[in-house]
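Exercise 7.
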Amino acid sequence: MKLARRERQSALSPFRGGGSSPFSELSRIRNQINQLFEDPFSLTAPPTGFFEGWSPTVDIYEDKDKITVTAELPGMKKENIDVSLHGNALTVSGERKEEEEEHREGENYRSERYFGRFQRTITLPTPVDPNKIQASYRDGVLTITCPKSDEAKPKQIQVKTS
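Solution. The predicted structure, written as tokens, is:
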């Protein structure tokens, strides 16, 4: 049996073909809604189809000195990942390429992995120093460390007695 790619369905169609379950579709919708709350100006970006494509899941941690963003990008090569900062908007983008046909063995029974371009923009809560941002990729997890700018770091003020 060989799976054939189905034609794109309307964005109003609740489920896509290819073995997607209602739960995975609900998860994707939740991620899209979260992305709208993280970057409300993304509505002004060119339309890409509300239910199409994929975007990596992210965790964001903040302490007094830095903001750390981790993104799950399993099966990707670091050469296919781009990280950029524009103001307080950190963008992770790239492309997950589909495996070549000759590398697959046997026939497909079910295919649920997403391939193609993605972009995820996160609005950072405080200004960061763009010259000190570091990104590392290991075991399918991208970790971006964004040191806060000096003016964004909390300052200890000494209390004097008179």
